[in-house]
Amino acid sequence: MKNNFIYSLLIAAALVIMLSIMLPTKAYAGDQPDPSGTKTGTVVDVPSAKPGTPTIQEIGDAVGHNHVAINFMWTLITGFLVMFMQAGFAMVEAGLTRAKNAAHTMAMNFMIYPLGMLGFYLCGFAFMFGGVGAIGTLGGYSGLSNEITINLFGKPFGLLGWSGFLLQGKGYDVAVFTLFLFQMVFMDTTATIPTGAAAERWKYSAFMIYGLFIGTVMYPIFGNWVWGGGWLSQLGTNFGLGNGYVDFAGSTVVHMQGGVIGLIYAWLLGPRYGKYNKDGSINPVTPHSIPMAIIGTFILAFGWFGFNPGSTLAGTDLRIAVVAVNTMIASATGALFATLWMWWFRTKKPDPSMMANGMLAGLVAITGPSAFVSVGGAAIIGIISGILVVESVFFFDKIKIDDPVGAISVHGVNGAWGCLSIGLFADGTYGSGWNGVSGAVKGLFYGGGFGQLGAEVIGVLTNFILLSALAYIVYKFADKLVGNRVSLETEIGGLDIPEMGILGYNGFEMDKVAETAHPI
Predict the structure, then answer these.
(1) What are the start-end ranges of the H helices in 451-502?
(2) Does 50 fall in a domain?
């Protein structure tokens, strides 16, 4: 009886389906289905002041509005992707350090987000973009046009923006808000890099002071000089050096800045207790969770598809396909060649932590040139970055700069390499009119001469000098107020309880036995 009932239901369902296919659909005015989507969204959907057919002006306005709306949505969505990279940074840094400091490392990666954001909102955005002029892809709004300049050699040198504070007044505009969100998450990437280089011995109170300065002053100045209409971007129009200093998505504006700050902090803080012996030999400090670091790396690689393609600020710019593939290829060659270099020439093992850093190095290096190079150029840039990151890690260890996660090598060294590579590999197929210079961006290997390479060298050197000075000043300021380094007792026991009041891993003491036998 039960089976007969089930069979009856199945037969009835089959009949209903057959009838729905065979019977013609009755069309009513205004509700004709459009399964292909070709008839949905036509001239009748254009808002009109009067009933009937819209005017040519109204149609044009609708097309322009939709064009800019696509760019808005693209820029915002890619900004959301970049924001998620913060989780990746937290996992990579916590994974590559020790379990006894996990809560402290995670807390730095967490708190830098609100600290940096509020500083950027307060004045950092205004310093960086207050003189940017028209935001072409986002509707052409030109309210942010107050750049502080000086005249040298008869040429204007932009130094700092001066409008858009607290996003008020001329900053209260939809295009400005879109740009703010996207640029804020870029700033946050810079801000979090030094937390890896200075991990496992940095006082949380001193870190908080740094966090207040990074978004307000430290990050925006160089950013203005490159992306806000400042003097580095004017090297082309003022002195004929290619298209001026070019950094498409932030190899130096974002990554090298963080790497240089990390270098200064790691140097001034000194190495972790037990890392180096008096005879110069090195005691390796083992990461507590390689799986966490690998997962964090993949999160970062995913977020990078917002980082680089999003920097077009235009979903209507079809170059995003080239940017995305270049990003992917450089990450792959970076990871592969870092692995092979460690395996064949350094440790004779395919070190998983260096696999991760190799991928990140490739991503950092391709960030600046991603829109300007061919996919072959991207592969070469990634190969060199994979080798560079390995050799750089060993170099800094040799000179006793203790960087627990390799942040200086990944972001600082390869950030510099990324922008220098523009002066070599830019193929002249993109960037016409960049920084007000007619003609596309073209490097030395594609007939561009030494002009573009010269601009890139000037920009990289400027970055290193400026950020070294700013990092030194902020470090010394915090040292006077609260001190930068935790006590030796706190460092040996772990920063979680003394600094944060809670363990990252409750019930575990994974580091203690090893450090009792051999202090590291």
Answers:
(1) 451-481, 488-493
(2) no
Please state the length of the chain.
520
pLDDT per residue as tens digits for the range 107-163: 999 999 999 999 999 999 999 999 999 999 999 999 999 999 999 989 999 999 999
Residue 343, token pair as written in the block: 């395996």
Q: For the chain, give me the number of helices (H) and strands (E)?
A: 18, 2
What is the domain count for the chain?
Answer: 1
Domain span holding position 141: 62-274+284-516
In a domain, 30, yes or no: no
Angstrom CA distances, 120 to 145, 217, 241, stand at 18, 8, 31
Give the per-residue pLDDT at 34.
Answer: 66
| Bridge partners for 147 per DSSP | 161
CA distance readout (Å), 444 to 249, 396, 421, 454? 21, 30, 10, 10
Dihedral sign from CA coordinates of 44, 47, 50, 54: negative
340 Cβ contact list (under 8 Å, min separation 6): 350, 386
The residue assigned the tokens 């003022």 is 238
Residue 517 is predicted with a pLDDT of 41
- Please list, in sequence order, all residues whose beta carbon lies within 8 angstroms of the beta carbon of residue 157, skipping any fewer than 6 positions away: 149, 150, 151, 230, 231, 234, 238
Residue from 327, 422, 336 nearest 386 by CA: 336
Angle at alpha carbon of residue 335, lines to 331 and 338, rounded to 5°: 135
Q: Which tens digit of pLDDT belongs to each residue from 224-253?
A: 999 999 999 999 999 999 999 999 999 999
pLDDT of residue 90: 98
pLDDT at 47 (0 to 100)? 81
Could you tell me the pTM of the whole model? 0.91
- Convert 224-289 into a string of H (helix), E (strand) and C (coil): HHHHCCCCCCCHHHHHCCCCCCCCCCCHHHHHHHHHHHHHHHHHHHCCCCCCECCCCCECCCCCCC
CATH code of the domain in which 362 resides: 1.10.3430.10
Give pLDDT < 70 ranges for the chain.
1-3, 5, 16, 19-32, 34, 508-520
- DSSP, res 255: I
Is 446 within the bounds of a domain?
yes
Measured CA to CA, the distance from residue 139 to residue 118 in angstroms comes to 26
Task: Return the closest-CA partner of residue 474 out of 222, 265, 224.
Answer: 265
Provide φ and ψ at 410, rounded to 5°. -65, -50
Burial of residue 507, with CB atoms counted within 10 A of its CB: 0-12 exposed, 13-18 middle, 19 or more buried = exposed
Classify residue 496 by its DSSP letter: I
Distance, in Å, from the CA atom of 191 to the CA atom of 181, rounded to the nearest integer, reads 15
Q: Which of 209, 230, 221, 255 is CA-nearest to residue 482?
A: 209
Q: How many CA atoms lie within 13 A of 475 on its CB side?
A: 21
> Do 199 and 405 touch, CB atoms closer than 8 A?
yes
Taking alpha carbons only, the member of 240, 241, 244 closest to residue 231 is: 244
Residue 10 within a domain: no
Report which residue type is found at 197.
A
